[in-house]
Amino acid sequence: MITDSQPSRRQFAKTAGAAATAAFGFQFVPSHVWGANSRIQLAGIGSGGKGKADIGGSVGVGMHVAALVDIVDAKKLDISGAGKDAKKMKSRLKAMEQARSKYGDAKFFTDYREMLDSMGDKIDAVTVSTPDHHHFHASIQAMKAGKHVYCQKPLTHSIWEARMMTKVAAETGVKTQMGNQAHANSHMRRVVELVRSGLLGKVKEVHAWTNRPIWPQGFQTPPEADPVPPGIDWEQWIGPAPHVDYSAKIAPFAWRGWWDYGTGALGDMACHIMDMPYWALELGSPTSVKAKQEGGSELSAPINSTIVYDFADKDIKLHWYDGQIGAKFDRDNWKLIPGEFNRPGPKILEGVDYKKYGSVIIGEKGKLFFDRFRDTWYIKPSSAGDGFDYPEQSVPRAREDNNYAEWLDAIEGKVERGQSAFDYAGPFTETILLGCLAQRNPGEKLIWNAEKMEMKNRPDLGKLIKRDYRAGWEIEV
């Protein structure tokens, strides 16, 4: 327990971050210590999509689900009026029904603030598997309540939020992990060691790519409003973000393409695909970022983009490619019509199948092609490894290559920290989200001042670096 009484939902909304240093002067004693059940007691915030995987992964390594939070109350849900979208919605919402059935003894809430108020002394940890715009509020409030946090990628929706998540995690001392699961793979950690040990010599550039978005992106105006189905708390779904009328074309899946709620293909995939090179090269913050793209609007991320991050202090450029060239947004059917995979040119790939890899690091000695799913990373030319003195292991390995197990081991004191804890994930997310700022200002080279957290040549972008929240969702850190 951290206090004699837990704050109310209203108090959370007003004081979630005030007086941080003073508020964190506590010793957290996990609730499970006091009961017969010795397992870590978990609250799953978001139970569909990645929530299903995150809750299941946490249970799989030994946690117990004490609470579930979702804006969809499966026991009250009625989508009979959803028309042609009903079939798609039923498929997407099935996981919520399964969670309620599978974890039948877990208490259910539609508001994580109420859950923390009611269950604060009965849970030890939370998974946060919501749309991007809720990551910060749910995680910050959980950390301030002394709960360990596993939060999906990207860590936050905005740069300021990522900076604050890093800060609060350090101040509270809770154990954290971001949901870029491949970060736990031993083959990734081995490649990190090899790159750092000079396998490629001086690294000059990095290229990383994805075929996403596979969801609607590039639209100019919202879809027509639908009636909110009984059992869906739409106001809670909107939460701290600007309001939009409910539509089945926004939730439960297509929110990723909306700037107010998601971070597009870049936010969704870069935390996976850029992870190894960012980690291996210890890139930190870029000095500038620039995007060119097709599509995109004030509402929506682009259909495709190519972004150049310049890490001038390391003399390294990172090139990001997403989407498909020539793809079109079909408004009538609210989907993308495919085009040609946006990827590096033949001089970079040199005949290597881009579909089998997600990134390439280019050094003075050669190229290393890597994919997070494959342990068959590839060096070209193969002679680049001749005579190389292979280093001893220096990066700790995750138990069973499982990032949920690594998080649990950190909570239980078996390891000092998870390797994708917020002290790593926060700065990494900041860098990725700088690319989102570039996408919202295509063609312009944005000059970044990391220390001041501002664009030197576009101070007006401060409104996107730290955005205002809806009334009742204000938060101070």
Q: What descriptive keywords fit this protein?
A:
single chain, Rossmann fold, 30% helix, Dihydrodipicolinate Reductase, domain 2, alpha/beta, 18 strands, 477 residues
Structure characterization notes:
The longest helix has 18 residues, at 422-439. Helix 6 packs parallel to helix 7 (159-172) and helix 8 packs parallel to helix 11. The chain is α/β, with parallel strands linked by helices and 477 residues long. The strands form 3 sheets. Strands 7, 8, 9, 10, 13, 14, 15, 16, 17 and 18 form a 10-stranded mixed beta sheet that branches. The chain has a 6-stranded parallel beta sheet with strand order 3-2-1-4-5-6, sandwiched between helices. It folds into 2 domains: 9-180 and 405-420, Rossmann fold (3-Layer(aba) Sandwich), CATH 3.40.50.720; 184-400 and 428-462, Dihydrodipicolinate Reductase, domain 2. It has helices at residues 9-15, 20-23, 50-60, 86-102, 112-119, 132-144, 159-172, 186-196, 234-238, 264-273, 275-281, 346-349, 403-411, 422-439, 462-465; strands at 41-45, 64-69, 107-109, 125-128, 148-152, 176-179, 203-209, 288-294, 304-311, 316-325, 328-330, 335-337, 340-341, 359-363, 367-370, 378-380, 446-449, 454-455. The radius of gyration is 22 Å and the shape is globular.
